[in-house]
């Protein structure tokens, strides 16, 4: 059976394993860490089988398709119970994965990435009318936030938070049928992102790596406030229309404390631009573009209380000879050179690459059950399958070359 699974494993077909490393050996080593919290040997075995199935089955990673590798109808019933009806706690398994990855490939940042999961019906937990950026339209879908540990070598999801609309939380029947915990309360998607990060770092005792997020459609003040309350370093991509107040002595005095859009502010800061050089593997230098950083604060609230959002820097990024600014990022990380911040901004691109290249292919969106815990168990084991894929071979593009000041 192991030989058959090894032949059919996705990363063997699409991403040749590194010399001397097989997905089976990586999974065997990882499973001793992942499933230590499961009290029964049959649960640990089912966990192994489920991850093997996510890696090895072709097409949609449904429980029926996964069970076809392990004995058909009887295996399907066992796996269905293991995912949707069992009592094992997915949180310690997820925490074990995050800690294991931190030990072997320490993260440089945690990327907070929303995930929209289109659904045909209305029975899947948390399903609602939502905007799907991939389709550019409203659709019937679940929505979750993934916390991705991004290192120099790999990008792997380590935590998930499923967004639950008030229509689900206020409906006692729906809550009972989906086994939604009593602790679940209404929150916005922005709050969902913040809580996902806090659950990863504060509750699991992991290092407070920078939270990197595309916040162009978010309530930036809310995200900044939430992450700052958690003591998190942050790097948020913001829209050109975000209003900020300049507090940088390097800018003209006429701009002091003047509120303007982030785009306008970066136009004023054009003289502050610095070239950024990337050092390639052979030591050669390649001109990568321009950056500018200015100190800012978010506008005062209507209550006119003193702003609690000082200590922020707006980072402009652009290509040499191209449109300025190309990207705008807001950060409270003030002890890094703009070139080092630029390196962190690329974490979101790496996650986008591997989301389609690995996460979707191991079935992170494919859970078809109705229960809250079932969804989280599937997402946890899909994250484990993703980790096996990247640890066992060249399943990601090569790491970015190091950025250094010019």
Oligomer status: single chain
Overall pLDDT level: 86
**H and E string:** HHHHHHHEEEEHHHEHEEEHEEEEHHHE
Helix proportion = 25-40%
> How many strand segments?
13
Radius of gyration: 23 Å
What would you note in describing this structure?
- It is a single chain.
- The protein is of the alpha+beta class and 406 residues long.
- It contains 15 helices and 13 strands.
- The chain has helices at residues 2-8, 10-14, 23-34, 41-56, 63-67, 73-85, 90-104, 166-169, 172-178, 189-201, 220-229, 262-268, 338-345, 347-359, 372-391, and strands spanning 109-118, 128-132, 137-150, 155-162, 211-214, 234-237, 243-246, 259-261, 274-279, 285-297, 312-318, 327-331, 402-405.
- Strands 1, 2, 3, 4, 5, 6, 7, 8, 9, 10, 11, 12 and 13 form a 13-stranded mixed β-sheet that branches.
- A hairpin with a 4-residue loop joins strand 3 (137-150) and strand 4.
- Helix 4 (41-56) packs across helix 15 (372-391).
- Residues 1-20, 302-307 and 396-406 have low confidence and may be disordered.
